[in-house]
UniProtKB/TrEMBL annotation:
It is a multi-pass membrane protein. Keywords: Cell membrane, Ion transport, Membrane, Sodium, Sodium transport, Symport, Transmembrane, Transmembrane helix, Transport. The keyword Ion transport applies. InterPro entries: Na/Glc_symporter_sf, Na/solute_symporter, Na/solute_symporter_CS, Na/solute_symporter_VC_2705, Sodium:Solute_Symporter. Its main location: membrane. This is Cation acetate symporter. PANTHER family: NA(+):SOLUTE SYMPORTER (SSF FAMILY) (PTHR48086:SF5), SODIUM/PROLINE SYMPORTER-RELATED (PTHR48086). It comes from Paracoccus aerius. It is found in: Membrane. Belongs to the sodium:solute symporter (SSF) (TC 2.A.21) family. The chain crosses the membrane at residues 6-25, 46-71, 77-95, 116-133, 153-170, 182-200, 247-269, 281-302, 406-434, 454-472, 478-498, 510-528, 548-572.
């Protein structure tokens, strides 16, 4: 059986499972569409939350970022995991106790203002649409390789699948589908990691293999990886090279952005009571940790496998003891079929610049060390592996390591499960904001439940279309795009939720001014360096560390935006009237433990 046929069977079986679950769990009411009728148990909700949370950025892109940058990109692990702890401790139980369906609904009621609710909707839409672009990017990458279709065709296939089960099932269908998707993605992530860890270090657990001895060389694995990449002129894998200030701000942006993500927050509205929200958070952390503790090993081993494929001598001895990969070998050798396969996607490319029939992979800007000496002695024309997209590393790693075909097929299904599960959650958050907060909450308060449900489904369908169109031209690879969404959530949604729960002094004027100031400052900073709507050539300033204000990258500015949000909100509230007495009492009632059994309900 060919690899393509195997991929098709495994991916097709997973799709059939998702659609079957959606038909079985079809939402018949707005309560089921928005919050699964608040009937999801803590363990199942924890698993669904983990799937919702672990997106294409976690599954596909994060290990690729770690693979090529090393220690510095551990910020993704620290920020995303730490942010989830903030969400679990500071927001989720209190928002569930408030008992609403959506984040903008909480903002509107807590700050007694339809204007605040509408601004909350706008912030949610900006964050969620930016985030969902990253998911669709991951869908396109996966489909383009494993189903041998173009990136755009892959996007439309993924959109059609999400349409089938998200529009039909709403939160009820999405919840049970995400449970299935979690099982698929965690199996797909860990099985190849176990195989590769055994190959390189002899350890079954990749978490241990990362710190074990590399079998072929007898060196510690990370030390061997450092040697290989530095010999080739690249930066030390385990070293710290970036700005410490930017690293701290970026980690904080990811943390508070995580805690402000509306599609994750609404998952805690699906459990029967407040105590279950806390239990769900604990279970979700367990399920997330199963992948996140493996990711550093996956990234480092992927980098090692790629490098030693290009320079076989690096596996055990001298980096340059054997010639680089020959063009003739790429065309003929089965173990290099992965290079041919990924070349067709445009995400991997090479060029024989000096016409010697070999493809050299090294840092051609190095001025000293083995790489520079090799270039001087052999007259090499520069790095000839011209494109290696970060998003391919997890997906290509099983092929690079020559793992069995069924493992490759499972990884393909897992990548799609990760991207689609989060895309569905984001699209639900978008459609709920439009149908429940804009249409029912503002434009047509007397709309019937049947028509509201229809509006929710129509708005989700439109959201899928918009997300797909935007995903055709993303601003970067999956994790880059997602990082921008976290910055936007950090600067707009997280502060207003924190102040809404923990400060009875902040009123509607402060909340509105804070959200506007935080979101606008972050958007302007991002667009100044990334361009308006990410159109090439529209950025006002070069997107380089030297040009960034105080060395703060666009993805890190969400922390500054959050501080601006807090400062403006408190300053405006200080000169405004105090919130009404019933609102202050409401704030106090959210935090006190007497409602732990779920006293406040919708």
């Amino acid at each position: 059986m060919s690899q393509f046929t195997l991929n098709l069977l495994v991916i097709g079986a997973s799709f059939a499972l998702y659609i079957g679950i959606a038909i079985w769990a079809r939402a018949g009411s707005t309560a089921e569409f928005y919050a699964a009728n608040r009937g999801v148990g803590p363990v199942m909700n924890g698993m669904a939350t983990a799937a919702d949370w672990m997106s294409a950025a976690s599954f596909i892109s994060m290990a690729g970022l770690i693979a090529f940058t090393g220690y510095d990109n551990s910020t993704y692990l620290m920020g995303w995991t730490g942010g989830y702890v903030l969400l679990a401790l500071l927001l989720a139980p209190y928002l569930r106790k408030f008992g609403k369906f959506t984040v903008p609904e909480f903002i509107g009621d807590r700050f007694y203002s339809q204007t605040a609710r509408i601004i909350g909707v706008i912030c949610l839409l900006i964050v969620s649409i930016t985030y969902v672009i990253g998911q669709m990017t991951g869908v396109g990458v996966t489909f383009s390789r494993y189903l041998q279709v173009s990136n755009s065709t892959g996007l439309w296939i993924g959109a059609a699948l999400v349409f089938c089960y998200a529009v039909l099932g709403g939160m009820k269908g999405i919840t049970y589908t995400q449970v299935a998707q979690y099982i698929v993605l965690i199996i797909a992530y860990t099985i190849p990691a176990v195989f590769i860890s055994l190959q390189l270090t002899g350890h079954v657990l990749p978490q241990l293999g990362l710190f074990a001895t590399h079998d072929a060389s007898g060196m510690a694995f990370l030390a061997k990886l450092d040697q290989v990449v530095t010999d080739l002129g690249f930066r030390q894998y385990t070293g710290h090279h970036n700005s410490t200030l930017d690293m701290v701000l970026f980690t904080m942006a990811l943390m508070i952005g995580t805690a402000g993500l509306p599609h994750v927050i609404i998952r805690f509205f699906t459990v029967p009571k407040v105590a279950d929200a806390r239990k769900s958070a604990g279970w979700a952390l367990v399920f997330i940790a199963l992948l996140y503790t493996v990711a550093p090993a996956v990234g480092s081993m992927a980098r090692f496998n790629l490098t030693t494929t290009m320079w076989p001598g690096a596996q055990a001895g001298d980096t340059f003891s054997q010639p680089a990969v020959a063009l003739s070998d790429i065309e003929s050798r089965p173990d290099l079929a992965w290079m041919r396969n990924w070349q067709t996607t445009g995400l991997l490319a090479w060029e024989d610049k000096n016409g010697d029939g070999l493809i050299q992979y090294y840092n051609d800007t190095a001025t000293e060390g083995p790489a520079a000496e090799m270039a001087a002695a052999q007259g090499l024309g520069g790095n000839e592996l011209t494109t290696v997209n970060n998003d391919i590393m997890v997906l290509a790693n099983p092929e690079i390591a020559n793992l069995p075909g069924w493992v490759v097929a499972i990884v393909a299904a897992g990548g799609l499960a990760a991207a689609l599960s989060t895309a569905a959650g984001l699209l639900l958050a978008i459609s709920s904001a439009v149908s429940h907060d804009l249409i029912k909450g503002t434009l047509r308060p007397n709309i019937s439940e049947k028509n509201e449900l229809l509006a929710a489904r129509v708005s989700m369908a439109v959201s899928i279309l918009v997300a797909t169109l935007l995903g055709l031209n993303p601003p970067g690879f999956a994790a880059q795009t997602v990082a921008l969404a976290f910055g936007l959530a950090a600067s707009s949604i997280f502060p207003v939720l924190m102040m809404g729960i923990f400060s009875s002094r902040v009123g509607k004027e402060g909340a509105i001014a804070g959200m506007i100031a935080g979101m606008l400052s972050t958007i302007l900073y991002i667009f100044a360096y990334k361009g308006w709507f990410f159109i090439a050539g529209t950025n006002m300033l070069p997107d380089t560390p030297d040009a960034w204000l105080f060395g703060i990258s666009p993805a890190s500015f969400g922390t500054i935006g959050a501080l601006i949000n807090f400062a403006v909100a408190f300053a405006v509230s200080a000169v405004s009237k105090r919130p009404p007495a019933h609102v202050q009492d409401l704030v106090e009632s959210i935090r006190v433990p007497r409602g732990a059994a779920g006293a406040i309900s919708h």
